[in-house]
Design goal:
Restriction endonuclease-like alpha-beta roll fold, five-stranded mixed sheet, 24% helix, 40% strand, globular
C-alpha cells in the first residue's frame, strides 16, 4: 500500500514592505512521502516571497508538467512560473517559453553552485528568468516552525525575510544569481 502525503495547513500573514503587499493566505501544503522538510519549507518561504492573490501551488513533485508554484491570469495564461531545486536547462527554457516570468529557487547550498556553473551560460539568453538561492541553514532551522496546523507571519523588508510563529523565528536573505 502506498504511503499517503502529509497535509499541513498554514495561515500565512505576509507583510511585504518591498512590494507594498499585505495579505493573509490560508494554505494547504501536501508533503509527498519523498519530500524532505527542507523542500516543504522552501515552498512555503517562496510563497511568502512572491505572494499574490492568484499564486498557487502546482500539483507537486509527482507531476512533471506543473511548476512548484505558479500564477495564472484569468484567461489561464501563465504570468509567473516558480521552480524549486535545480532543474535542467531544457526545463528552464520550456518554462521561459510558456510564462511571462520564470523564477528558479535553489535551496541546497554547495551543490547549487555546481549546478549553476553548469547551466549559467546556456540560460543567460533567457529574457524572463530570475534565479535565486536560499541558504539551507535557515531552512533547516525553520523546521522547528513546521507543525500540521501553523500560524506564521512573514515580514519582508529590504530583501530580508523574517518568518515567525508565536514562539520562534528565522531570518533569511535570498541571494539573486540572475535577474532579467
Amino acid at each position: 500500500m502506498a504511503i499517503k502525503s502529509t497535509v499541513y495547513k498554514a495561515e500565512l500573514v505576509v507583510s511585504d514592505m518591498d512590494r507594498n503587499y499585505y495579505a493573509t493566505h490560508n494554505l494547504v501544503l501536501a508533503q509527498h512521502p519523498s519530500e524532505p522538510d527542507r523542500r516543504l519549507l522552501a515552498r512555503l518561504i517562496v510563497f511568502a516571497l512572491f505572494a499574490h492573490e492568484q499564486l498557487e501551488f502546482g500539483r507537486g513533485i509527482s507531476n512533471d508538467e506543473d511548476p512548484d508554484l505558479w500564477r495564472r491570469d484569468l484567461t489561464g495564461a501563465i504570468e509567473q512560473w516558480i521552480e524549486l531545486g535545480q532543474p535542467d536547462e531544457s526545463r528552464i527554457r520550456k518554462a521561459c517559453g510558456r510564462a511571462q516570468q520564470v523564477v528558479v529557487v535553489s535551496y541546497s547550498g554547495n551543490s547549487a553552485e555546481v549546478w549553476w556553473n553548469k547551466i549559467a551560460s546556456s540560460v543567460a539568453r533567457s529574457k524572463n528568468l530570475m534565479v535565486i538561492d536560499l541558504d539551507p541553514a535557515p531552512l533547516d532551522q525553520a523546521s522547528r516552525l513546521l507543525q500540521r496546523t501553523m500560524r506564521l507571519s512573514a515580514t519582508i523588508q529590504d530583501g530580508d525575510l523574517h518568518l515567525s510563529n508565536d514562539t520562534d523565528s528565522i531570518a533569511l536573505t535570498p541571494m539573486t544569481r540572475m535577474q532579467k
